[in-house]
């Protein structure tokens, strides 16, 4: 018997796909294939191909109910004030940004048709025409200017006020053209404006309870701390989207309860599942797990301006003492990618893949500890549940130290008050950093000499100069080269140890289709509602 298919055409493929959509069973489908000249083995290939094609074809209709892990009575529909994942999900369903990041981390246009600049300081933004708000108002340059200028108003309380402060001038060139002037050149402006907070709202908006945006859904119900319900925007400017008729979003803080709600059919989508709760889904038919590694990490911070971090050999010894493979396998239960002690993750287009992680080498670690004169001394290490998996990481590092006579005193402190009392303060402690879209934001926030969150008190004039140079250059190849060099500097010189980039896991019904990874986080960077569909 041969696997060759005779006289089989794309029309025959379409016939099989149509039969699958009508609900034909496997026996009926194979009978159809055999009648068309397909051998049994080849028929299986065709059937698999047709099934995949059907699954990948968006279907309109249906109501999706999803649960996140956090909510508050302070939940808001004001993009500038958004601070929780629940805020981001709702804002992404109601509003649009000028740009967005695709699954590969590349900046794509959304409400903007183009972003152009000759010097990275003055930017001309052309807006799409034919875009309307939910209330019927046309999108104009004034809406964009109003939306961006809000972040500069202290009374608004924008969560990205410091990032927005670089925008110093706004001009409506015409109805669909905006000119933005920066205090200093920044080639990342199009990417920065892909952050969730920079959603575009209508000029003059003060009441955000109606969620009046240009987005894929129109607000029906919003109960802060409880739930939101949005319905399909039938006048949406993106042809064919959204696929869903409605989308309901709630929060269930307990991981097991969130998974149980999924398994019982109360929800279709359970976001950010704890590795321990994942066992509840294992082997259950009709459910899937989706993993996204987008740049979130827990790091061990050794302050370089105080003992023992002031001794370079102690820092070097600690970097060799970290068993990254074991941390990913045990502390993160396999949900992570090995890190190389710098914050730009593989999800970022500027990630330096040639920079190899420090190998686990207890002998080298012992050599450096002896050279520092600290082998055998008791060294406090502060850990807390506040920093994801830091306690498990600390125990693994502590055990490796004990094997070579290095005494690491792991002190577990409460989550409450950790970020105020220990983070950035204790000589050796853990941090947890959320994904950021650009190396410039990460380096400016965490490693520049004047960085507000300089976790290890790393200071380098050369690094600071490179940061400014890369920020102002429109030459992407040159920027890549500079950022590669800066990642090497951080990895080798700073006192931060980043063992792994942590994966986020969402759990969902197998009927939910269209989910992809995104560098801004799980749930497709919180923008899933517009892109998902329910299998018929």
Automatic annotation (TrEMBL):
<keyword id="KW-0812">Transmembrane</keyword>
<keyword id="KW-0732">Signal</keyword>
<feature type="domain" description="Solute-binding protein family 5">
    <location>
        <begin position="108"/>
        <end position="451"/>
    </location>
</feature>
<keyword id="KW-0813">Transport</keyword>
<comment type="similarity">
    <text>Belongs to the bacterial solute-binding protein 5 family.</text>
</comment>
<protein>
    <submittedName>
        <fullName>ABC transporter substrate-binding protein</fullName>
    </submittedName>
</protein>
<dbReference type="InterPro" id="IPR030678">
    <property type="entry name" value="Peptide/Ni-bd"/>
</dbReference>
<keyword id="KW-0472">Membrane</keyword>
<dbReference type="InterPro" id="IPR000914">
    <property type="entry name" value="SBP_5_dom"/>
</dbReference>
<dbReference type="InterPro" id="IPR006311">
    <property type="entry name" value="TAT_signal"/>
</dbReference>
<feature type="transmembrane region" description="Helical">
    <location>
        <begin position="29"/>
        <end position="48"/>
    </location>
</feature>
<dbReference type="InterPro" id="IPR039424">
    <property type="entry name" value="SBP_5"/>
</dbReference>
<dbReference type="Pfam" id="PF00496">
    <property type="entry name" value="SBP_bac_5"/>
</dbReference>
<keyword id="KW-1133">Transmembrane helix</keyword>
